[in-house]
Amino acid sequence: MNEFEKNTDNCLLNEFGVSRQNATTHQLYRAISKTAFATIQSEWKKPKNKKTVCYFSAEFLIGRMITSNLLNTGLLDECEKYLNSVGKSIKIFENIEDAALGNGGLGRLAACFLDSAATIGYALNGYGIRYRYGLFKQSFVDGWQNETADDWLAASDPWSIRREDEKVLVKFGAQSVYAVPYDMPVIGYFPGNDKAAINTLRLWQSEPVNAFDFTAFNEQRYSDAVSEKNRAEAISAVLYPNDEGYEGKCLRLKQQYFFASASLVSILKEYKNKFSNDFSHFSEQYAIQLNDTHPTVAIPELLRLLTEQENLGFDEAFEICKNTFAYTNHTIMAEALEKWDVKLFNSVLPEVYPYVVMINLKLKRDLAAMGICGNEQNQYLILENNLVHMARMAIYATHSTNGVAQIHTEILKEKALSNWHKLYPGRFKNETNGITQRRWLKLCNPELSAFITEKTGEGWTVNLDEIKKLEKYKDDPDVLNKFNEIKLEKKKQLAEFILKKEGIKIDPTFMFDIQIKRLHEYKRQLLNAFSILDIYYGILDGRITDFTPTVFIFGAKAAPGYRRAKAIIKYINEIAKLINSDERVTDKLKVVFVQNYNVSYAEKLIPAADVSEQISTAGTEASGTGNMKFMLNGAVTLGTYDGANIEIVEQAGEENNYIFGAEVEDIEKIKYTYSPKKLYDENPRIRAVLDSLINGTLQDNASGCFRELYDAILYGTSWHKADHYFILHDFMSYADAKLKVNKDYKNKSEFSKKCLLNVANAGKFSSDRTIKGYAEDIWKI
Ligand code: 26Q
Description:
Layout: H1 3-16, H2 25-40, E1 52-56, E2 60-63, H3 65-73, H4 76-84, E3 99-101, H5 105-120, E4 124-129, E5 137-141, E6 144-148, E7 161-162, E8 168-172, E9 175-187, E10 198-208, H6 214-218, H7 222-225, H8 227-235, H9 250-275, H10 282-285, E11 286-291, H11 298-309, H12 314-324, E12 325-328, E13 339-341, H13 342-348, H14 353-369, E14 383-384, E15 387-389, H15 390-396, E16 401-403, H16 406-416, H17 418-423, E17 428-430, H18 437-443, H19 446-456, H20 477-502, E18 511-516, H21 525-540, E19 550-555, H22 563-580, E20 589-594, H23 599-605, E21 611-614, H24 626-632, E22 636-639, H25 645-652, E23 658-659, H26 664-670, H27 676-682, H28 684-691, H29 705-714, H30 727-744, H31 748-760, H32 767-779
Parallel strand pairs: 1-4, 1-11, 4-10, 11-12, 12-16, 16-17, 18-19, 18-21, 19-20, 21-22, 22-23
Antiparallel strand pairs: 2-3, 5-6, 7-9, 8-9, 9-10, 13-15, 14-15
Helix pairs in contact: 1-2, 2-3, 5-32, 9-11, 11-12, 11-14, 20-31, 21-22, 21-28, 21-30, 22-29, 27-28
The structure holds ligand 26Q.
Ligand 26Q is lined by residues 103-106, 109, 240, 242-244, 246-247, 252, 330-331, 338, 404, 433, 621-625, 643.
């Protein structure tokens, strides 16, 4: 018996009194995790003698930890053998919950960055919130989204260590709570890589200072007795299930301050252990990256701590802040930039607000010195119109602002933040997003990974550029065949999983066309839905012949308060019902909306895709990262010139992808004259799909929500013009592109060649490259 087996057996015996033969899945999960954890313990928390990066983020969408940790420690095979010895496989851990402590792209990016930094060997630690409940679980009831709490801790959390001794007191005016850190090891990819490190993800949990009020209890005021506990625990209770859409809620601000303040206090403590009260080295020792504006309250908080507790002067403290902090912007849409009502801010954080005022005064002086006076200043002010503008603070009080894809950064510089760019041109940078190839190829697609390794060597796991070596096989029929076989195998596996989870049977020989991402109007799931209906009508009326059988797959969660997004889910589910029950198209068309789309589901869907749907209105998707995952797994992109799609096509060739629709410049030109009603009146195909919303073809249970979608597209609303996201404008171009993919798919070898060329040219999209970019351009490490 080897060490791993011995230790796991011991752990099972000691903790649960069971042998491996009769251990439950949860017991095995815990014992294997603990054993793997023990093997890295001595490497963890070794002090590192270099600059440390602190990645502040309200979200870390890490997904399932056990498999990636086993992969990175090199224990995956041993674990598989261990489980095989009792007739099980690593698949049993599919029932273990994901850690869904994030909404989507921004949170998943943070998780990829942790993996990359540890693999490269940078000292980068994550700081965030240990939400009691992560993103809600989704199911469909009669086609409507239903939400329930995500109890991710139910199976215990073997990967975290509670550090009672490092808890921190956080004050909100009269209320005080403890922030208790739970540390998770972030394990770099070790096999064959001597640079790898083990970093830390520190997540703070909010707890009461006094858990129980005995006096109140004795006076029979039972709810008073636990009210402090409830109020404290509320702070880290739930992740806000809302991306983009701004919602100024007092609890959200408390969350942000809670983790920003606790993190800073613990960083300062660490720093002072080394340098005591000499703060002149602080920004050489630490870089703090703000993942969007969500942790930006850390800026006035650090100012407060340095001046009030460390007795630094304001200007000196401000310089330290500026040199330490850097800000990443993830959205173009002005309405999504965080702003807080001054009254609310001041009442929740009375100790911090004065520092916002001081930063604003300093900004005014700087503006005046640059010749910007009077009303001219308003567009820059952090305090304007009774609002605290977080993005303005994040740009002004840091040394770097970056966008997340070339086009996004250009739009920031030329439009959204052009005024700031004029003031501080040197501060603006681009760092195109990336994904970790360890999770998004090696782990989720072992079949393709093994084949790539066979053809190019092992190097791509830590240097994705090496995947380019695959390109020389683009005309090799054996390689293309094998490539096809692997794709078919992944499609079979997905079909089996979907049958089990959704009870829907899909044919793995169909083409798989997949759109998975948060549900948003700008991402245009509705455009996809319309085009499917158009294909359905086209097949029925004979306009479309010779159609390659296709299954259209959706996965998406809608923010619970986003009514129109929920209407779109219902609409797509009704389309699925209509099409899947029509025997005339059974051998041609299938539509599936999977429930509870999350990281683990993505790991199954992405390797099985032939077509990746990336169809946001040009100029709206900052980058996208799902697009990169599909590319790496050999799907072609059907997409607009938006976000990172542009760079994907630049790498893999336009001829190997399917680009359609208006570009940013086109939209600029038409945006004031655009008339969707005209397109509707003139084009019978557009009319047919749109009318399905109101003519009884599809039922919304008399809620009126389909009519509302219809009206929004044709007539607009009080807050948006008609068809704000140009769905009808792009419809024909999209429908044509979709039929083109469908036709091209028939030529198996030509199509596989496109897929292979996408894989071979995905090197740029490793988050290893991204994180090296941040290290060089921003953190200077
Ligand atoms: C803000 C205020 C109140 C409540 C919630 C929020 C909130 C929460 C999450 C605002 C935004 C988010 C998440 C945004 C996000 O995921 N953006 C995506 O970031 C990716 C990584 O850079 C990009 O690839 C995507 O294009 C972008 O949409």
